[in-house]
Amino acid sequence: MIEKDAAPRIAAIDLLRGAAMVLMAIDHVRVFSGVPAGGPDPSIFFTRWVTHFCAPIFVFFAGTSAYFYGLAHERLARFLVARGVWLIFLELTILRVCWTFNLDFRHYEMAGVIWAIGWSMIALAVVSKLPLPAIAVVGLGIVFGHNILDAKVAAIIPTLDGGIGAALWKILYVGFSAGPIQAGPDGPVLVILYALVPWIGTMLAGYAFGRVLVLPPERRNRACLAIGVGAIVLFLALRGANLYGDPRPCGAKPPMPAFLSFLNTTKYPASLLFLLMTLGPAIAIMPLLERAKGAVARALTVFGRVPFFYYVLHIPLIHALACLVSLAREGHIDPWLFANHPMGNPPPPDGYTWSLPLLYGVWALAVVLLWFPCRWFAQYKRTHDAWWLRFV
User: Where are the alpha helices (DSSP H) in 242-306?
Assistant: First the structure.
């Protein structure tokens, strides 16, 4: 039995989160580069696809971290509600400004991954007093069962115009595919990038997964391998059968090579196959990551120990670097960089779009620059115990 003051620190979690943070920056550089979010070109497709692992890892292991927090602290539910409200507030204020570099709050707000984590923490708080097996059943039931609604949702999307019912459908399941939520004829406008239901299930499943990680190392490694490989096999079987969990549409446009189409699962809202495709490999590799050494592992661990601090810093840094690139290339900062990114902006101006080498170069520079403040803050957290550190 784990004592309240002896919650473990699993090295593989820090490495996975650190890798997710680094990969996430690729996609966020892409936002300001004008490069499309995928497509039939393999180089562009995988520039986007490799970042799909980030949100599931971020959300799932946020649930696991909550489990560990509950081992070492009282009042878990109270903490989860407070942190959840804080994250939602930051998403709609500070992070919104970092994405857009404008103050046009009336006409654009975005509910992104930090919003989803905040609401998922509040949902976890609601069920946190239940027995752990019950939380696992609820979480896995949502992850595996929410795609049953797909046919119904497809039928009602054309009817979702206004009202509380339409807003709830968009927030909980449909997301931006049914249009933004708009209060009145002239805003405010809320674009739902991360519909909540799949991510709530993911966080609850991650919370239950914490019990696996407190097993003795050999049993833990066997369990991680079995869960991870099982998820991969199930993904391959369901995707191959093309029956449930995110069936591939016929006549998809633009047409894709078969292999790319096989991997092109739905993130918005996150389908069962999307979650199996991303979380399966992440969990399966955990035993190997526990033994990882070297400079790369140490650097990723630094990022993984302060993931939210990294997240808050990396968006304005990447946005500022994009402004510098525009200044160097065009002699001025393109006004497009002050539009409502990443969901309310128009297409990039003619001739603006970056090459992939430039995109990856800016990404590498951003990661190097982020390492220094993240290393400092990780050390600060290790040597200080102020209450506010739990919220950063």
Answer: 258-263, 272-284, 286-289, 295-305
Contact predicate 197/59, CB 8 Å: no
Token pair of 354 as six digits: 């970056």
Q: What is the pLDDT of residue 253?
A: 63
Token pair of 256 as six digits: 């894709």
Single pTM value for the model: 0.94
What is the four-CA torsion angle of 334, 337, 343, 345, rounded to 10 degrees? -30
DSSP per-residue string spanning 324-391: HHHHHHHSS--GGGGS-TTTSPPPPPTT-PPPHHHHHHHHHHHHHHHHHHHHHHHHHHHH---GGGGG
Structure-token pair, residue 374: 């993240």
Task: Let me know: does 270 contact 205? Beta carbons within 8 Å.
Answer: no
68 pLDDT more than 50: yes
End-to-end CA distance of the chain: 29
